[in-house]
Specification:
With about 80 residues, this protein is an alpha+beta fold. It has one domain. The protein has 3 helices and 2 strands. Strands 1-2 form a two-stranded antiparallel sheet.
Length: about 80
């Protein structure tokens, strides 16, 4: 199984895997713009496999958290089913 991860903030009550629309609205209203931030840091590509892009997204999330001086970001995970 491959584990998916997402970037969120400590005060966001919504799960981006289960309630993306509510999570996104909360995130934007607070001015975090986490999706845009992650898109600027992650170096994904159509030339990469899905697993390579997931690894890059996780690397970018770890980098964002590493330099998060306000300690507002966190990484959450969910297990995804392998494609056959």
């Amino acid at each position: 199984m491959v584990s998916d991860c997402a970037l969120t903030t400590i005060d966001n009550p919504y799960n981006p895997f289960k309630n993306f629309n509510q999570w996104f609205l909360f995130d934007v209203q607070k001015g975090y713009n986490s999706c845009s931030y992650l898109a600027r840091v992650a170096r994904t590509s159509d030339q990469f496999t899905d697993d390579e892009n997931k690894q890059e997204i996780e690397r970018a999330i770890d980098e964002i958290i590493k330099y998060d001086f306000m300690n507002i970001y966190k990484k959450i995970r969910r297990k995804s089913v392998e494609k056959v």
